[in-house]
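Lab notebook, entry 500. We have the chain sequence and a SMILES string for flavin-adenine dinucleotide, and the next step in the workflow is to get a structural model of the bound complex before anyone spends time on docking refinements. Request logged below.

Task: model protein plus flavin-adenine dinucleotide, output structure tokens.
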Amino acid sequence: MKIKKICIVGGGTAGWMTAAGLSNKFSDLGVSIELVESDKIGTVGVGEATLPHIRYFNNSLGIDEKEFMLSTRATFKLGIEFCDWGKLGDKYLHPFGDYGMPIHNIEYHHFWLRLLQKGHKSRLCDHSFPVLAAESGKFQHPHGDINKIGSNYGYAYQFDSGLYAKFLRKYSEARKVKRTEGRVIEIYQDRESGNINSILLEDGTKIEADIFIDCSGFRGLLIEQKLKAGYEDWSNWLPCNRAVAVQCEQEGASLPFTRATARKAGWQWRIPLQHRTGNGYVYWDKYISDDEATHKLLSTLEGNPITEPKQLYFKTGKRKKLWKKNVVAIGLSGGFMEPLESTSIHLIQEGITALIELFPDKSFHQSDIEEYNRRMDLNFDRVRDFLLLHYVATQRDDSEMWNFFRNMTLPSSLEDKLQAWLNRGYLTKYEHGVFHPPSWLAVMAGQNLFPNSYDPRVNNFDYDTIKTKLDNLRNENRKAVNRTPDHASYLKNFGASLVN
Ligand SMILES: Cc1cc2nc3c(=O)[nH]c(=O)nc-3n(C[C@H](O)[C@H](O)[C@H](O)COP(=O)(O)OP(=O)(O)OC[C@H]3O[C@@H](n4cnc5c(N)ncnc54)[C@H](O)[C@@H]3O)c2cc1C
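Result returned:
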């Protein structure tokens, strides 16, 4: 009953990440893997900003960080800077790290809230080393000693997604993955079980397999076009449905963070790589035309464009079942939410991890399939709520889109989290999945959503003692940032930069 053959359909980021992940675990166990992709169709060609979890993925494959960064022209990423989200003119950075450490088991931010309520002026950001480092264009790997300043943060990468796919292709082919070029034109199902048993390519080649991984992008060739898994449409909550993307020359040194600037009908990204910058405008077509969005994007680039603007269309949501019969959808074929928090590649990684843990035999136990779908649903739901938070925690009333969000009815899961925060500064924790309390704190405080109260246990502490402790951390952070090298020279000294 052992699975002997896996077929991956699609060779974008999802396809090659899946090939790398599965070949690392199963090639030596006698499972053969074939990946089919079509150069004529191509890939979506975007997806350059990541979350820190990708380091664990690369590490699990035994990938050397320098080699990976050189091959993909990657920069380090300490977080995302959000401009104009709470109000026009606002700016804050969502870092991959904590704000201070708990004091007597009470979360640090409650102490900060008490200072604020007493009229003390201090930005939450000043209590975070990665925010201050990012604002100064600086970077270094986190300190190994957790008692030191500059240890309690993570980092991710900004990279060229096409180069990452190439890099993983080389890795996978070295682990016996067979790549086949060709367009899938037919998909055959077993009459009894309904499982897919083979696919037919344009040149007449037929590929049989025990399990198929659908990485065919938005079209969902197997999971939707053949198996009709169905789509859960979330555009009532996240209605942006288009994007226009363009690459431009880089002006100045590459910065260790992604930027997301809110616009009247969506938002604009800026992702600095070593040799160029990726840009795009994600928008809701109800409130802006394609031409207007393209014009806005091109008129706000920091360097000369080096590609033609590329238009992309999408509907936010996810497949009702990401695993159906013997097909698992990973990547855009499984669903999509706008890249506001760089979550799509992370969801690919979650899909691969869950598939490896629940890897089936030919009997395809329904309980395993349901567990996979349950886990992935949870991941998607959590990302959706966190993305929506950015839109609804706003005071903007300068366009119809912002008015729509200010007046919307929220999913109850998000409403509950917001109420817990607003009532007493409580940050609900997830046991699994993204995002953790400091991320919620960053966005809520960054977008001027402050609670009525804080943990009353904080009142057991003398105010001046609290103030001195928090001021000390701010000063220590500043001093540590002064000692930190700038990002571009750190990249060079680390040996990961191709840019002189
Ligand atoms: C505007 C935008 C911005 C984004 N930004 C980010 C970001 O910053 N961070 C992030 O994490 N994610 C981002 N994403 C998502 C990210 O781009 C994708 O998750 C990632 O690229 C994976 O795509 P994919 O491999 O699923 O699909 P694709 O790249 O579309 O690949 C599909 C593959 O299937 C093949 N294929 C399709 N049909 C056939 C056929 N009939 N026969 C043979 N082969 C076929 C294609 O040739 C291709 O190889 C963004 C997405 C969009 C739309």
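Notes for the group: The first helix runs from residue 13 to 26. Worth checking against the assay data. The mean pLDDT is 96.
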